[in-house]
Structure prediction request, 635 residues.
Amino acid sequence: MRVENVRMLAQSQMTLYHNSKHKIRNILRTIDSLLDGDFPLEAGRRAFGRLRNVFNEFEKRIDRAKRLNDIKTIEQISNNINVKIYQVLPILGFILRSTNVRNAFELLDPLQSLADSALQGNPELILSSEWDYVPFAYPQSLEDLRSFVLIGLPASEAASALLVPLAGHELGHAVWRNRGIEGSTHVTVQYKCQELFKKEKTFVEFKERFPEYDPTHMVAKEILPETIAQSVEYAVFQAEEIFCDLFAYAVFGEGYVHAFSYILAPGSASHRRSKYPSYETRISTIQQVAQQEGVSLPDTQALNFLKELPHANARDRFVVRIAEESVSGVIKGLWTKIEQIVQEGAICRPNDTNASAHLREFRIGIPTHRPECLGDIVNAGWRLYYEILDSRKEDKIPERMDCLNEMLLKSIEVLEYRRRMADDTNRKKTS
Amino acid sequence: MILTAKKLAEEIRRGSRVDDQGIAIVPMPDIEKAERDGEASINLRLGRWFVSMRQSNETHIETVKGVGQFNENKFSKKHFVPFGENFVIHPSRFVLASTLEWIRIPNRYAAYVVGKSTLGRRGIIIETAAGVHPGFSGCLTLEIANVGEVPIRLYPGMMICQLFFHALEGELQSSNTIHGAQRKPRLGQLREDPVLSKLMKRRR
Prediction:
């Protein structure tokens, strides 16, 4: 290599080092400026601190590589820095939005209590409002924020107390991973799929739809063909959604299906998504579980959902049907698991008596005096919501809805107030 | 006629039994203590939401409805202060806050908000529009000013003001207060004033 080329190469590697250092400085500055904000709970501040440490560590490593003149390592770390910034920037935005006053911060305390009861370890909840209509979670899967559960609700609905059951569903995703339910369910649905394929009728249909595969391989379990892998993949996704629906139902009761309908109905009468159970399956599954507990819930029609169309392609229909059938075989086990989690965590479940009592208070324009459970408050809220819609005084509906939301959020704050009073009393008793 | 502690406690207990003729205060204050101390008022606590004034490109705040176009929200900034943290109010500054308690007053009563003397002596004045009308339901917005010379910390949950209740003479059929059913402090809506509108009309 000519001397000139060597010099140019060394120079470009130094540029890489300096660019990376500059990027780290900029991201640290960004985090520091975010840390200057007001935080409703310390969790957001702690998450920023953790992310800050990640970049401090990168800086130490790249400096060490430079001292050793280790060009390969500088390249590798520089690339890792790019990837990390790419991963972290949306999280920084998420945490920043969790501090915005559009959020109903009253929701944080009871949801944190719920996370404490349902998740192992010491979970730290960050509830944010997202520029995304679909509620979602980053459930303890971020390697740098393992103990954090990040739940996002749509910005336009961030202060709607009636929609807090959707956060319950999102928390369910964290429970799914945290409690190892994902792994055990994967094994079970895979087995169920294989069993289904062994059935003569399925076997014949499979041969018809997928002539390129030799089904005997599958029966002998020597090969897991791509087709069954696809069904298993869909089944695991669908089982997770069902689990989260049932978890939200366990914690919020009837309020969950109303919140679910509010945010998603009527849905599109187009072809359904394979990774999600159909609305009909989701609602009817919750209905069946509720029925066993003596709770009557509305069906998909009453909840204003349109019927989704099956896949146009016969092969896709077959794959999804196998997934659905295998999922239907694990629902009982999933519910049993949820009941265990609820019992172990002493999670308060809503009941009709409390919701009715709260409703009487809401009707005369006051928050509830003695809330015990977040679900009771929300369920009473949904009952009044429908009473307002039925009142036929259309011009008064927006004003009454606003009033309802304020009463709900104040009731939720009273729940925190009572928890704090009870915690203090318990602490005094034990000391 | 101001309600005595005993009568107040009776009415608050009635309100807690979901009787709309009673006085509802949520969360319930320590009425046993008020009874024991023989007070004639109920202490209320500071809520967690605040509204401060900020500089903006609006030139002024308008005080009459329908005059000019302006956006008064540009002057205000909302804050949420968790329990255990504090809000510092600097000398000569003014902030809106709300009571932690949601109050519902039946048509038989009205109330007056008065600051706490212990805070007043330290420079904190609760300059609220003191009268609370019959039928009011919501958290009270408090206009808190620091008229002292040193910054003062306010803690959500602290006792911030007291409420004296008065029985009304005569019968009130209904009440239509406009600032109710809110948990956060807010500037509130200006009312139409037909008399002022007539007075403000220019002669040709």
Observations:
- The longest strand of chain B covers residues 41-53.
- Chain B has a mean pLDDT of 89.
- Chain B is about 15% helix and 35% strand.
- The interface with chain A takes residues 15-16, 18, 20, 24, 26-28, 48, 78-83, 100, 102, 104, 137-139, 181-183 of chain B (CB under 8 Å).
